[in-house]
Predict the structure.
Amino acid sequence: MNHIWKTLPDDIIVQHIMPYLYQKQSPILLADIRNYMEYYYTNEFYNYDYNQYVWFSDLINFFTVSNRHSTKSVRKLLKRHIIYKNKNDFELFDVSFDLCYKNIEQDIERKIRFVWGLMLPIERTRFINKILLD
């Protein structure tokens, strides 16, 4: 990364990059980031009482059970990601199948963080209340 900074002209850094870096972030985004971190570490009990596979399956089941249409609900969740928002249902079906069923034991922590990050703060709260507290 340092190599990129050294090769960029100072004008670009000062006039275009630095103003963007010092721009104030929206309160909604900052609240979402705090919510993500706070609730993510609240769910650490999965590592002690269960394991990460149970956590991931609970996340997926939360969307499939609460929305009644398993493939549609996971695809709807995936459409929140910038890469997948313009994909059609067939492409999203492949992605959702790969995420949920293919190589489930591989990169489970990354998959949990991916789904957790796509959830809205209210959905994270509902997940905590429904899965953990009930």
Remarks:
- The mean pLDDT is 80.
- Residues 26-133 form one domain.
- The first helix runs from residue 2 to 7.
